[in-house]
Amino acid sequence: MKLKLLQSDITAIKVDAIVNAANTSLLGGGGVDGAIHRKGGYEILEACRKIRATQGKCNPGEAVITTAGNLPAKYVIHTVGPVWNQGGKDKEELLANCYMNSLRLAQENAVKTIAFPNISTGIYKFPKELAAKIAIETVNDFKSDEIEEVIFVCFDKENYNLYDKLLRTWKI
Ligand code: ADP
């Protein structure tokens, strides 16, 4: 599995699957979630509604997969990050679960290339450096023969610089 870093808008990336930092409703929201639904169109929302109707809400740490509608990707994997609030080990575990469950779902759907945003570091206020450490560590520990490339897509320069530093110092 090759790890890559980009500063970009994730809705523009042509990979098998992009990951969405969704909320428990799965019905869209602000930040990256809003951008994905806006550009991906109605098909994504319809698919999310169907999932809601059959399995209910999506809990923090869990992931579901839908079409990517009008986006260049094939699939969107929606995962719900934890809200930081007071923080704690349970929040760290839930964030790691987001990356792990998204990769599992990717693998089950023969996804070879996948792009992640910086889950929970926007509206959900997870500290960026801790979130970057958890993201890189979890992805790096995930062993897969099927997934070929994982791209960390940072929207802001601060996250990009944090990832860049960690990937260099850990020599990943
Ligand atoms: P959360 O509620 O999980 O914090 P947000 O969407 O508010 O989700 O933020 C998660 C991260 O996604 C933030 O680092 C934010 O800068 C980033 N982000 C926002 N829009 C985009 C986009 N179009 N592409 C990639 N990342 C984005």
Automatic annotation (TrEMBL):
Source species, domain of life: Bacteria
Residue stretches making up the Macro domain: 1-171
Record-level Gene Ontology MF annotations: O-acetyl-ADP-ribose deacetylase activity
Leading EC class: hydrolase
Enzyme Commission number(s): 3.1.1.106
Keyword tags: Hydrolase
InterPro entries: Macro_dom (IPR002589), Macro_dom-like (IPR043472)
PANTHER family per the UniProt record, alphabetical: GANGLIOSIDE INDUCED DIFFERENTIATION ASSOCIATED PROTEIN 2-RELATED, MACRO DOMAIN-CONTAINING PROTEIN
Name under which the protein is recorded: O-acetyl-ADP-ribose deacetylase
